TrEMBL record:
This is serine-type D-Ala-D-Ala carboxypeptidase. Residues 278-369 form the Peptidase S11 D-Ala-D-Ala carboxypeptidase A C-terminal domain. It comes from Sedimentibacter acidaminivorans. Removes C-terminal D-alanyl residues from sugar-peptide cell wall precursors. GO terms for molecular function: serine-type D-Ala-D-Ala carboxypeptidase activity. Gene3D superfamilies: D-Ala-D-Ala carboxypeptidase, C-terminal domain, DD-peptidase/beta-lactamase superfamily. Pathway: Cell wall biogenesis; peptidoglycan biosynthesis. It catalyses: Preferential cleavage: (Ac)2-L-Lys-D-Ala-|-D-Ala. Also transpeptidation of peptidyl-alanyl moieties that are N-acyl substituents of D-alanine.
Amino acid sequence: MRKKIAILFFLMILILNSIGINTYAVEAEQLQSKSAILINADDRQILFEKNINDKMAPASITKIMLLVLISEKMDKNEIALNQEMTISKNAAGMGGSQVFIEENEVQTVESMLKAICMRSANDASVAMAEFMYGSEEGCIKAMNDKAKELNMNDTSFANVTGLPDPNHYTTAKDIAAMTSELLKYNYVNQYSTTWMDSIYVGKNKDSEQVLVNTNKLINYYDGLIIGKTGYTNEARYCLSAAAKRNDTTLIAVVLGCDDSKIRFAEIQKILNEGFANYKNLIFHKKGESISSSTVYCGKEEEFNVVSKENINFFTNSNCKVDDFKLEYLIEENLKAPLSADSPVGKLILSKDNQILGEYNLYPEKNIEKLSFIKFYFDNIADKILK
């Protein structure tokens, strides 16, 4: 049995090295956090793990999912930063971290976002939940539905704040997944990476609440783009953070740390190792012109060919673009009309004769069919006259 395990292990190393992925330098036993993970944000490839499927209390990291729902609604123009809401008794009475909003006072979405992202305010979180879904319960259902959509199979939300509850738990792996989802949007990034700000609360807006971000990484970690801390006696000190350097974006999560210094130190350690060992090579960016192609019977004779996604590959830091082969296969004798949503070819990415990915290619825009009269005069009539 040991011999079989050893053979499988070395085969795994050979496969990983053949496509340019190194083994990770940090050992799980070296970390004091109870659970930790590092992933590539683009494809959620796991680069490092420690007890990533252990169900644990997430504390205020819970609010990442709330921010996902807020971002979705902003993206659909269902809510806006300057929209106002009236604070309920329920929201104003929330304990724990808060900005001391009062019952019946009027607040804006932007002020509540600042309070959630920077102070991790429970009262602001409940206020936003009620504003978006009519009740906290409605928002909790939406959070759990979104968790299922993201395949967060070991997650159960019982509130929007992260306050202790036996039915409120998640895992490092699931937290990384919802952090990756939040990165699809940029509505909250500026608040998550702002060190200090303030909002005015109270019915007369006569009380200034100075907000100091709970995420100290803002001040000294290069490339940090988002982060959310959490703490309760049950969860201990937690943190989920994403950082970007050049074209590489990594997400790290640590849970169950004994003090705040440990969570910041271990997040940095994990991220640093990731950036030292891996990088994301981008061959073509989403929407950029890759090549051009001719089309018959169209109002235009040529059109630009694009991809609807980044064409990239996550690999070790020693690889370079020239190590890869890109083969462009565009259909011949294309006829109008062409839809921007229908593929006209594909790009095959390979390395050392191993196919790593295939990507559909599309027209940059719809190509309309030339009218018969226009086609006649531009082609047939012109030839007759000649």
